[in-house]
């Protein structure tokens, strides 16, 4: 395939390089998940008309686009980690017109006593990354890990997600607070691995001291909140808003990092389905006050 433009590679028919979507294949409302199996489970809730559009990109992104209760929605599985969130947000923003709402349904570890099977709706997120220079030969660096400032979720979306998940699972099962997005499942989440020098033995003490409001650890939410904060008004018809992406996140607790308990994976499918419904309901309640992407010629167009 020939890609024009090394700055933002795009194929002759308008597909982006990694996610491979073109205009009319992704909607303004998106649920993003890590696991493709989770995305396929959620795609089963889409309306039967029009038929669900599916695409597997050569780089492992999976998209399902259709309608939920008549509202156009996309579900996009991105795999794991900060760079995958960056690929996804930038490439999808490039092919969708109008404001966007992106909600992550992920999994996480808890730091606040939340049990496996409970939920996090982070009102903000920091990134916690390995300070690579600390580990360099002859390094004089003092800190093995760096923590960024907080980036907020959309307040309305966080409220909606908390409300919908509380209705589905009970108020006491849904937790708010600051999320930590780490650049490793292992070292920068405080997991001990004797095969590597990680200098992370006191990482939880550092977190408790520097960020006592932290409730969860995972690997993508920060980049979603960060990029939403950094979007410009470029694709909006009436450029009265600074930011064109509204975002929120909800995560199922898979690991209790205080008691070291891990989720029984046999309960995950039903947990994802029930949580998925709550996320869909939050997503369709988002009401943009600008024009959204043209339906004519899109994969979610209803043809009578
Ligand atoms: C690690 O197991 C993965 O699970 C979490 C982390 O953020 C990381 O991607 O989220 P997902 O279940 O959405 O992938
Ligand atoms: N995902 C993570 O990134 N960390 C956990 O502990 C569980 C899920």
TrEMBL record:
Residues 29-230 form the Nucleoside phosphorylase domain. SUPFAM superfamilies: Purine and uridine phosphorylases (SSF53167). It holds the Pfam family PNP_UDP_1. CDD domains: NP_TgUP-like (cd17769). It comes from the Eukaryota. This is Nucleoside phosphorylase domain-containing protein. It comes from Basidiobolus ranarum.
């Amino acid at each position: 395939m020939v890609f024009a433009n090394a700055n933002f590679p795009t194929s002759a028919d308008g597909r982006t390089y990694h996610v491979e979507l073109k205009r009319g294949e992704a909607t303004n409302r998106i649920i993003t998940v890590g696991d493709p199996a989770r995305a396929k489970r959620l795609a089963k809730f889409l309306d039967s008309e029009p038929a669900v559009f599916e695409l597997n990109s050569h780089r492992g992104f999976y998209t399902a686009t259709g309608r939920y209760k008549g509202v156009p929605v996309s579900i996009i599985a991105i795999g794991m980690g900060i760079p995958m969130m960056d690929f996804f947000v930038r490439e999808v923003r490039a092919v969708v017109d109008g404001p966007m709402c992106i909600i992550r349904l992920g999994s996480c570890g808890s730091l606040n006593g939340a049990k496996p099977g409970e939920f996090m709706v982070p009102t903000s997120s920091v990134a916690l990354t390995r300070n690579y220079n600390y580990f360099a030969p002859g390094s004089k660096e003092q800190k093995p890990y760096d923590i960024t400032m907080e980036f907020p979720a959309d307040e309305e979306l966080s409220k909606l997600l908390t409300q919908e998940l509380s209705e589905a699972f009970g108020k006491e099962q849904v937790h708010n607070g600051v999320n930590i997005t780490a650049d490793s499942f292992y070292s920068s989440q405080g997991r001990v691995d004797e095969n590597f020098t990680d200098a992370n033995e006191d990482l939880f003490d550092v977190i408790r001291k520097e960020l006592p409001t932290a409730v969860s650890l995972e690997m993508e939410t920060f980049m979603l909140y960060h990029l939403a904060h950094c979007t410009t008004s470029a694709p909006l018809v009436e450029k009265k808003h600074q930011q064109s992406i509204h975002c929120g996140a909800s995560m199922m607790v898979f690991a209790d990092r205080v008691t070291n308990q891990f989720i029984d994976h046999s309960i995950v499918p039903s947990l994802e389905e029930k949580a998925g419904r709550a996320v869909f309901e939050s997503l369709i309640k988002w009401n943009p006050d600008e024009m959204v992407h043209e339906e004519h010629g899109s994969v979610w167009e209803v043809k009578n």
